[in-house]
Amino acid sequence: MTSDKGQIFEDMRVFAELWERELPGKDPGVFRAIGSLLRLAAMLENEFRAYTHRRFQMHTGDMRILLALRRAGSPFSLRPTDLFQSLLITSGAVTKQVERLVRRGLVERIPDPQRKGSWQIHLTDAGKKVTDETVEDIYSTFNFAAAFRSLPPEEAQAGNLFLSKMIANVDAANAENGPK
């Protein structure tokens, strides 16, 4: 189901007004932002899931492992600990995902030159090809990317700045108080 821009803005206005009615004295902008971010995240996740399944018959978590390795830069290798911490998933999830990717020839385990007896996960040439295709496809074909590029540059920059500040503020609150 798709809505035009005017309908989306109207839906979010009504969403905030309903919360304002139910919780007088609370800033409805907080609820509007939460609802908007959750809706946008779900839309992007659905697009990413459909793409990874259709294009590579792959789980999104597996693709995230590949993209994290590619993003790390040459030599495209990370310790499993680095992967699960950066992707905010469990070590068990990383293990399962890496196993699937090893079977497909997209990653390999190599000895960690910094730690005897430890391993790194290394992106193979085939894995690098998959990630490079994926990055290009995301940029050129995803609805989210097209919508982002359609914004005036100052709005896109302001949106990125807002999201970066929100992430930093929530991270700081979590570090100080723990997640609620």
How is the topology of this model organized?
Layout: H1 5-22, H2 28-56, H3 60-71, E1 77-78, H4 80-87, H5 91-103, E2 107-111, E3 119-123, H6 125-141, H7 143-149, H8 153-177
Antiparallel strand pairs: 1-3, 2-3
Helix pairs in contact: 1-2, 3-5, 3-6, 4-5, 6-7
Keywords:
Arc Repressor Mutant, subunit A; single chain; 7% strand; three-stranded antiparallel beta sheet; mainly alpha; 72% helix; 180 residues
Q: On the 0-100 scale, what is the average pLDDT?
A: 87
By secondary-structure content and strand pairing, the structural class works out as mainly alpha
Q: What value does the Rg take, in angstroms? A: 20 Å
Low confidence ranges = none
Number of domains: 2
CATH superfamily of the largest domain: Winged helix-like DNA-binding domain superfamily/Winged helix DNA-binding domain
Structure report:
With 180 residues, the protein is mainly alpha-helical. It folds into two domains: 1-33, no CATH class; 59-152, Orthogonal Bundle (Arc Repressor Mutant, subunit A). 72% of the residues lie in helices and 7% in strands. The protein has eight helices and three strands. The protein has helices spanning 5-22, 28-56, 60-71, 80-87, 91-103, 125-141, 143-149, 153-177, and strands at residues 77-78, 107-111, 119-123. The two termini are 33 Å apart. The mean pLDDT is 87.
Q: How would you summarize this macromolecular structure in one to three sentences?
A:
This protein is mostly helical. 72% of the residues lie in helices and 7% in strands. The chain folds into 2 domains: 1-33, no CATH class; 59-152, Arc Repressor Mutant, subunit A, CATH 1.10.10.
